[in-house]
């Protein structure tokens, strides 16, 4: 019984760690006027990605679109693609952070967050 409880607690610990992924880095050429952030998604589970935080003085969210997988399997996940435009006339920093949340709309305090670091390369 102790081994079973220990095993369950160990799995729960891994689950908590997996719910807080590390930051994702996206390299963007300094001259680009748009870029895309692509995140794995499966709306059949009720979960959806939303943008929680980004520097609106630097970027404008142009669109967000779910791209279904090429497979015909029911319930297979696809990708959520967020397209951002770089605002005209702004001096871009070396990097900027964005935060996305993957949650069900009826469970706003649950879910996971994904930090995305946008690095501008010359």
What do you see in this structure?
The chain has 122 residues and is mostly beta strands. It has a single domain, classed as Sandwich (Immunoglobulin-like). It is built from 1 helix and 7 strands; from the N terminus they run αβββββββ. A hairpin with an 8-residue loop joins β6 and β7. 9% of the residues are buried.
Secondary-structure map with pairings?
Elements: H1 2-18, E1 24-29, E2 34-41, E3 48-53, E4 59-67, E5 78-86, E6 95-103, E7 112-121
Parallel strand pairs: 1-7
Antiparallel strand pairs: 2-5, 3-6, 4-5, 6-7
Summarize the structure.
Helices cover 14% and strands 47% of the residues.
Give the topology string: H per helix, E per strand.
Answer: HEEEEEEE
Count of discrete structural domains: 1
Q: How is the CATH topology named?
A: Immunoglobulin-like
Form type: globular
The chain-level structural class is mainly beta
Beta-strand fraction estimate: over 45%
CATH architecture field:
Sandwich
Mean pLDDT: 84
| β-strand number | 7
- Kindly report the spatial arrangement of strands forming the biggest sheet: 1-7-6-3
- DSSP helical segment count: 1
């Amino acid at each position: 019984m102790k081994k079973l409880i220990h095993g369950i607690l160990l799995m729960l610990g891994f689950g908590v760690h997996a719910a807080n992924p590390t930051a994702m880095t996206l390299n963007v050429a300094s001259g680009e006027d748009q870029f895309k952030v692509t995140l794995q998604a499966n709306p059949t589970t009720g979960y959806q990605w939303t943008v929680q935080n980004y520097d609106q003085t630097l970027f404008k969210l142009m669109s967000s679109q779910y791209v279904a997988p090429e497979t015909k399997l029911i319930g297979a996940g696809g990708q959520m693609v967020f397209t951002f435009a770089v605002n005209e006339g702004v001096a871009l920093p070396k990097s900027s952070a964005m935060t996305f949340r993957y949650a069900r709309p009826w469970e706003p305090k649950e879910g996971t967050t994904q930090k995305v670091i946008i690095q501008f390369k010359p």
